[in-house]
Amino acid sequence: MSFRGVTKVFPRGIRALADFCLDIADGEFLVIVGPSGCGKSTTLRMLAGIEEPTSGRVFIGDTDVTGLDPGDRDVAMVFQNYALYPHMTVFDNMAFALRMRGESRAEIDRRVSEAAGILGMEGLLGRRPRDLSGGERQRVAVGRAIVRKPAAFLFDEPLSNLDAKLRLQMRSELARLHARLGATMIYVTHDQAEAMTLGDRIVVLRDGVVQQVAEPLALYERPVNAFVAGFIGTPAMNMFRVRCRSGAIEPLEAAADLGRADLPDGEYIMGVRPEDVSVGGAGIPASVELVETLGNEKIIYLATPGGLQFVARCSPSFGARQGDAVTVGLPAGKAHFFDQSGERIARDA
Amino acid sequence: MTSASVLKEGSRHILLAAGGVVMILPFAWMIATSLEAGGFRNYADAWREVPFGTYFMNTFIVTGLTVAGVVVTSALAAYAFATMEFRGKSALFLLFLSTMMVPQPVYLAPSYVILARLGWVDTFMALIVPWTANVFSIFLLRQHFRTIPRSLYEAAKLDGCSDFMYLWRIVLPLSRSVLVTVILFDVISSWNSFMWPLVVTNSENMRVLQVGLSYFNQEQASNYPILMAASTFCTLPLLLLFVLAQRQIVSSYSRSGLKD
To answer: Are B56 and B172 in contact (CB under 8 A)?
Structure first.
């Protein structure tokens, strides 16, 4: 499946996607992530055929499907609001696409019960959507896609209407489903945790422009720019505007010694992941502003007398409390540096 | 209950009861008069006097086919206005709506000329075809179709559904209550239509009930019992319809008034 230079401009001149190029491998779980309005849903909808690109081509296999009707593309989509037919039973919802394709009754029965078995919802087949919980509806929406045995599954923020616990459960179910079916899945979300846990590869979009396409860990460890660095990871990466002078790093807007880095003199954006911030030991004096105890870890919000603010991730046994004076180490070796426009500066040494 | 609320509740009931009496009085008078001087024989006499059987049959045919036509054309037009994208959609819809403001006498004569040129005068075609498109029905259905989430359309498209199948399998089943409203309105207006059938038909065997009843009234001007007997059995089908679908009719009227 591939996008070749796809651009989408909406009638009022809003550009949703610009010159989008991407190849998706067979059986891949690809996640498209980005803040709302970045064009990720539009991308998915153009693959589905619900939206037409302004320019560029969309291919499924070797076939150019750009002008093809959604029904002729052999893709199934799971919508954010599930889009189940309210007047039909679960069985009929799942069977609808097969009926439209003229499958035999025996084949429809077989495929619906097979899909219901996979999702553990044999008992729901006679019910109507309004009699189902959010999680069950979600499952039916997935089931409706499964019975079609499509070339690709498209998910448009399918978990965002579920409560937190159910979301985690469905997330792992989707991962298991992908492993079981081995089908190509393209998944759109604004939730970077979903993206990281589900995706074989992740596409980060911003204002219709691809920022980075990479495997989850690569995205986390080597973000290509400050946007990706800030978007991926919770809590977000600490970012400071810094100056490098003869290898010494100091923040622009506060007084502190942030160590040394092998960089030409100039101004940069320095990013440090919360888990790379060390509290205690040698470093900059700071005070604890807030401690969030999450059980398996503590998130510490810190501020230096000079006005520098950052977040650290500590072990649950860390004893500091609000108002305590501590010292903070920001190891420049583990830091990410970006130039003033936000592009990553390669430092492979 | 305080005395003030008893008073309020009581006066409300008295007012409603008075309204009820006012509404029922003509019916009561009609039925009472129809049974004077001869009792139920008046009904048989009235029925024999003119071919009411033919009038009833004509009215059933005209009402049935008109309503069927209205449902088909309104559903298709409303679907286009609600779901499809085309140039000039809003302007065209406004044009449609504006025709509701034209009173019947204005288009009666030109319509007659058209029918005459088509050779349809004094035929069922004249009674049925011009009424098989109804802007108000289109409007009601369109308003309802617009409340159906767009994602259902998209899901159906992905399921390989054509526009027509989407209308048939998804939209119409989800619009049952509005369809009932449209059908009820059109049954009532078609059953009661008088001016149009009077103008476009001449022969007695093409008369519909209201026209037949009116001629009968002129002929039997002074024989009130027999007149009222005829009026009673002409009103009976609608009365029965109201008894059977009372709740639907009341909610239909309130819905048609309230929907955006």
So the answer is: no
